[in-house]
What does this fold into?
Amino acid sequence: MKTFTYRTATDVAQGLEPGATFLAGGTNLVDLMKLGVATPDVLVDVNRLGLGEVGDLPGGGLRIGAGVRNSDLAADPRVRRDYPVLSEALLAGASGQLRNMATTAGNLLQRTRCRYFMDATMPCNKRRPGSGCPAREGDHRNLAILGASPSCVATHPSDMAVALAALDAVVRISGPAGERTVPVTELHRLPGDTPDRDTVLEHGELITAVDVPSLGFAARSAYRKVRDRASYAFAVGSVAAAAQITDGTVTDVRLAFGAVAHKPWRAFAAEEALRGRPATRESFRAAADAELAAAEPLRDNAFKVPLIRNLVASVLEGLA
It folds into this structure.
């Protein structure tokens, strides 16, 4: 592991050090440092910034501090009651020990688990721009079918981020230029020809909280994850959904897919295709197909198209 300078920040302004890498739970970052994939010069511990609380927003909804641990957020009674999709997504991720350490911001900012990115001896445009993307012809079974590019077909691994994308959550950010907000759906970038940039965060910017707005029908929501083994495995495909169904008709809906793109994939086309339609399996599958029409699977991951279609239908049938 490369040597680095370690500092502890006690307030947000102190933590905004140019060129610093932020450390909270460390469940992803420390692994990447051990592998030589992440090589920070300055590591700033942000655990003492007072960002570990979940609070109520004045107009309804929740403000989730960036340092809230995944286990605590999943168990919060307000989350379980009003946003079960979020609780289910959190409990589907990693192991109990990791959830006890992992934080809200860290979960959003975790890096891809593409095997070529994780191996510092291999070429990877995300790790070393211009070196190539061997995954396109190599091992890509669990990689992207939506929004990929010739430069990168990596997927974002978070379960929690998929649920937050479906819930219209907004990320609060502090940086040298002040504070700003970004919807979760716009936080992560598609790879294009600069896959080394995962997010729209600028150097020195720090996520301080995530706001989840009040969404009455989010109480009828669910997260479904398909993986290769029953526990402690990243998704092969996942769906987060919330639905408002009146007299057998879908009046409103939120959908997001996981493990299919470089970012949590908000399924806007599927949502539009569902509103005003009968709450039937045929409608659910047709809406999924409207979203998946843009899919460009590779040799070994075309199975994700019917997988996501069936997941959408199954989750929405359960909610209906």
Observations:
- Residues 220-319 form a domain with the Enolase-like; domain 1 fold (CATH 3.30.390.50).
- Residues 304-319 form the longest helix (16 residues).
